Amino acid sequence: MERLEILWRAFEKIAIVFSFVVSFVLVMILLLLGISLLTIAPALSEMRTNTACPLIADINNLVSDLDNAVITRTIAISKTIPVVFDLEVSKNTEVVLTAPVTLQRPTSFTFPAGGGQINGSVTMALPKGQKLPIRLGMTVPVSETVPVHMDVPVRIPLNETDLGPVVAKLKDLLFPWTTKLGDVLKCSEP
Questions:
Q1: How far is CA 146 from CA 49, 75, 177, in A?
Q2: What is the pTM of this model?
Q3: Residues 163-187: tens digit of each pLDDT
C-alpha cells in the first residue's frame, strides 16, 4: 500500500508540473496573439477602409453601370438597292400638241325625213399648240438600282439585349455577397 501511495504522490507532482507547463505555454501563446493583434489591427483597419470597402462599392457600381449601359454607335450604310415594281398611272391631264395633227375619220350622214344616208369621211387638222384634255391610264414597269449612302445613329440599351438577363443574374448573384461582406466589414455603403 505504501508503494501505491508513493506512486500516487509522484503522479500528482507530475500532473501538477504538466498542468503548470501547459497553462504557462497557453498563456504565453495568448499574450503573443494579443500583442500581434494589437500590431496587426491598424493594418486590418486600413485594409478594410482603403481596399475592401471601396472594392465592394466598385463592384456594386460596376454592376449598376452594366445594367444602365447603352451601346451608341453610328453605322455607315453604303449599298445599292434594287427597286423593281409596276407603277400604275391613272390621271386626268392636259397635253399640248407639238405639231399639227390631221384626223380623218369615217362617218355616215343621215338625211332628215327619210332622205337616205351618205357614207363618207371627215378630215380635220388640229393646230400646233392645241391643248387636249386626256385620261392617262397605264402601267409603267420600273426596274432600277438606287445607291444608298447614309450614317445611321444607333442607341441600344444593354438591358434590352440578350445581355440584359445575364447582367440581372450577375447583379442578383453579387448583391447578397457584397451586402453581407459590407456588413461584416462595417462599410458605410455596401
A1: 64, 19, 58
A2: 0.39
A3: 888 888 888 877 777 677 666 666 6
Per-residue pLDDT of 80-104, as tens digits, reads: 999 999 999 999 999 999 999 999 9
Q: What distance in Å separates the CA atoms of residue 128 and residue 148, rounded to the nearest whole number? A: 43
Q: Are 168 and 159 in contact (CB under 8 A)?
A: yes
Cα 181 → chain centroid = 32
In angstroms, the CA 132 to CA 99 distance is 13
Euclidean distance between CA atoms 178 and 61, whole angstroms? 11
Longest CA–CA separation in the chain, Å: 181
Residue 181 grid coordinates: 461582406
Domain boundaries, the chain: 2-185
Contact 70, 164 (CB under 8 A): no
